[in-house]
Amino acid sequence: MKLGVLFSGGKDSTVALHKAAKNHTIVCLITIISKNKESYMFHTPNIDITKMQAEALGIPVINSKTEGYPEEELKDLKEAIITAIAEFKIVGIVTGALASVYQTQRIQRICDELGIICINPLWKKNQEILLREIVEEGYKVIISGIFAYPLTESWLGKEITNEIIDQLVSLNKKFGLSISGEGGEIETTVLDAPLFMKRVEILDYYINAKNNSGVYTISKARLISKHSK
Description:
Structural class: alpha/beta
Number of helices: 6
Helix content: 25-40%
Strand order of the largest sheet: 3-2-1-4-5
Oligomer: single chain
Radius of gyration: 17 Å
Strand content: 25-35%
Largest sheet: 5 strands, parallel
CATH topology of the largest domain: Rossmann fold
CATH class of the largest domain: Alpha Beta
Distance between the termini: 37 Å
Number of domains: 2
CATH superfamily of the largest domain: HUPs
Shape: globular
């Protein structure tokens, strides 16, 4: 089937894309750029990097902007999916939803209205196992947003490794922190993945953080050969 992927450039949507690509043809990415940095629906840190990630994947991307008002932003998502149906003849979309009923119900409703299917390859997957798979399969993922106690600025920009996963598991046991950040505690940006033909190299960045909230923003980047050091 021809599918589009709701793509944020974070780990979940990227892994979902890879899983769906094993059995289906991914013909486009759909990225919603929200002006509301606290959107309940859409990932915002480094969302502009999706253009570069799309190029690395060799898949066209539909970029659609939204003011990010609750519920109103769903109209913008629906319009973007309608564009994907018209331009790329998709019959369904893929999401990186892992546990968010809020997001999943709303996306499913849009799909039902448009008569297309919704595929959620990661739904209810064990969060620790998912992160371990990411490391084992060679993804390069950095933490680009933290929004919960006891996370601090020191986490920003760190690559997800088995050591980092161990720390997240420990914080989950002590504080109930979602291991994969599914509750919005952590946001990520993917710099490399198995289907990337090139990888993203960060040339410059800045951090804006206070207490247990902060964002690592990539201000300059480029695509380079995956074999370059």
